[in-house]
Automatic annotation (TrEMBL), chains A, B:
Signal peptide: none annotated. It comes from Flavivirga algicola. The lineage of its organism: Bacteria, Pseudomonadati, Bacteroidota, Flavobacteriia, Flavobacteriales. This is Crp/Fnr family transcriptional regulator. Transmembrane segments: none annotated. SUPFAM superfamilies: cAMP-binding domain-like.
Amino acid sequence: MYTELEAYIKSEVDIKQSELKKIITHFTPKNTVRNEMLCNIGQVCKHFYFIKKGCLRLYEIDAKGNDITGYFALENSIISANTSFMLQKPSRDCLVSLEPSELLVISRDNFYKLINTIPQFATVYHKFIEFAFIHSQMRIYSFLGMEGIDKLKWVMEHEPKLLSRISSKAVASYLGMTNSTLSKLRSKL
Amino acid sequence: MYTELEAYIKSEVDIKQSELKKIITHFTPKNTVRNEMLCNIGQVCKHFYFIKKGCLRLYEIDAKGNDITGYFALENSIISANTSFMLQKPSRDCLVSLEPSELLVISRDNFYKLINTIPQFATVYHKFIEFAFIHSQMRIYSFLGMEGIDKLKWVMEHEPKLLSRISSKAVASYLGMTNSTLSKLRSKL
DNA sequence: TAAAAAAGTTGTCATAAGACAATGTTTTAA
DNA sequence: TTAAAACATTGTCTTATGACAACTTTTTTA
């Protein structure tokens, strides 16, 4: 049940088995269906998720009604409606499972209990935020200046899993272009 | 000399005066001239900066030779060539002072010594990364979908200091457009 | 399994923004 | 203080991309 989560934590920090057990007992399993909403706009996000299987997407809906993807998370990674989870303010993002997924959930209260009592868990979270920041910066650098065709080539090279796994529509919203533009660019390659 | 830094830390966490003193003794003053390079491409960033006065800019140079701003930092904030500082890998960013600036510098070794011995300092850093992440996500959401004119209005509303303080050229590189486009958009308002 | 819905493709047209260049303005340094 | 450099503005032309629509394909669900 928890082997993937254990492996994830061990890959991030050195930790004694006893403390690892203490961590995982605070997670409970949760299965989702396709397009299940884990945090909706306006809600204050109270949970953090580990993805055993499946795929989650964090996105915002802009003024024109189009959506923009902030983040995709695949197997063996952790995610939440980050901004809302951090600030405990109503979320501007939606967090949904793109596929039927197997998750492990921890409440925010337990999450912070662990952060404050198990330094290695604090480190796991710390690394998560650092990575999330670095990834966001990379996207800004990569997508703000590039033309569409180069953004597409960029994901093909750096995040090929997204293209094989995720709908074109969602990928387009990640690249900051319309689905029709993405479709035309694909045919040009 | 250190009053601004003290005020900054106290605004982020509750801390005893004795520990505050312990922190600030690890910072040393450094004054820069305009366009002074604090971390260049290829260098591994070994320092973290508090800005007493002035303004720093973090940017990358893309394939076409244009530059893209990842981050501006003004008075009373902290910054580094974040990605390189975190990963200790050669930087893809440049960190420069746009104006003659008064900085307080701490070495990475001392920085981590403080992180590991003074929990409040760890919290200050933790909050910094959270903020940096949230800010980056906001930029992705705001700039990836918007048209130029809306991006301009967005900064005018949310980060007006940038427009009064920073060269058009640098602002354009922050908004992901050319300087001539920014200039034309300005005249449309 | 069939009907409905969603997603993807492709075409036309309009437009925002880039490239480049000419010119004016401000800043920097000798 | 002045020459040089950097920055900013504005114009023309070109092009990438969005909007919209028609159509096809795939997926969902009853």
